[in-house]
Amino acid sequence: MRTFAFLQDSKRSAAYNLAIEEAIGLHFVSSGYGAGLRIWRNPFSIVLGLSEQAEDTVLPEVLRNFIESGEKEKSAVLPEILNLTLESEKNRTNLTASGNQNSISKDSKEISGINDSDSNRGFKYRKRFDKEFPTIVRRASGGGTVVHHPEENLNFTFFVSLDVKPELYKVKESYGYFLSLVVSALKRQTLSASCRGKSDLAILEQGLEKKISGNAQFRKRNAVIHHGTLILKPSLIERVSGLLKHPPEEPEYRKNRKHSDFVTSLPSDFSPLKFGRDLSHVFAESLGLFRIGSERDLRFTKAVFKEAKRLLENKYSRMDFILRN
């Protein structure tokens, strides 16, 4: 079975990252892949679930500032659309297929999703805005609103063809499968996490269950795409408290706790690089494979970025999608 690893080694807007996510989901099965893994980070951003209303989850002053910024600029990502070329993305991205060596182990910058050599072309006005208020975007999956920050959390995405694992068609079973992989990877750093609610991972802290990871899914063209995030630093929790309302719905184990009492971060010695490697290994083992592979497939790369550019322009950068009723 052909597999791929999609390792972010450049800075991209949050909207573009979400466009890439959907583009991979649309093309990997038709390109001959059975499964893949993406490790990535987002810039400072608020990410809405597909069906959520921004006014229900985001504090009014944060939402107002985002709308005012959007009215001035019309789109937070249009300069990026105009500057994108497939060739530059080919050079800045590792999109790999089954081959000689697992590239997840090659470069710590690749797995962390940070590479300071890349610039955010056309985003000078965003730097000023992001110091106080994050951009707001909407993803393709359901679930609740989350806050992303490039230094304070790490994102992971599994892509699996339902022809490879038809049992994942059932939502409950699919969450159980993917969350168990994350639990196994965390265990390799002596962290004991458990599945809570529909899609959370939690650890015990001073006798209380506290959330360290939220997860969500969407399905495209006979494939399931499961993504989640890990909280790396306590400063992210402070950001959440200053940006988001108490959610309109909550899992039973939250027990009406405020953000700062419900969410926690991973230990300071947690290694995102090791987690990425371990997650790749346990994912491969679950599929009966030795590794999630490593040689480039430029046709797949081109198809993904061509689709992502279209989705960015027509969907993820549009205020009528982000703030839809």
Automatic annotation (TrEMBL):
Domain of life: Bacteria
Molecular function, one GO term: ligase activity
EC number in record: 6.3.-.-
Feature: compositional bias, Polar residues: 93-105
Keywords: Ligase
Chain spans, region Disordered: 93-115
Domain BPL/LPL catalytic: 87-291
EC category name: ligase
InterPro entries according to UniProt: aa-tRNA-synth_II/BPL/LPL, BPL_LPL_catalytic, Lipoate-ligase_2_inactive
SUPFAM superfamilies listed in its UniProt record: Class II aaRS and biotin synthetases
PANTHER family referenced in this protein's UniProt entry, alphabetically: BIOTIN/LIPOATE A/B PROTEIN LIGASE FAMILY (PTHR43506), BPL_LPL CATALYTIC DOMAIN-CONTAINING PROTEIN (PTHR43506:SF1)
Name by which UniProt lists this protein: Biotin/lipoate A/B protein ligase family protein
Source organism per UniProt: Leptospira alexanderi serovar Manhao 3 str. L 60
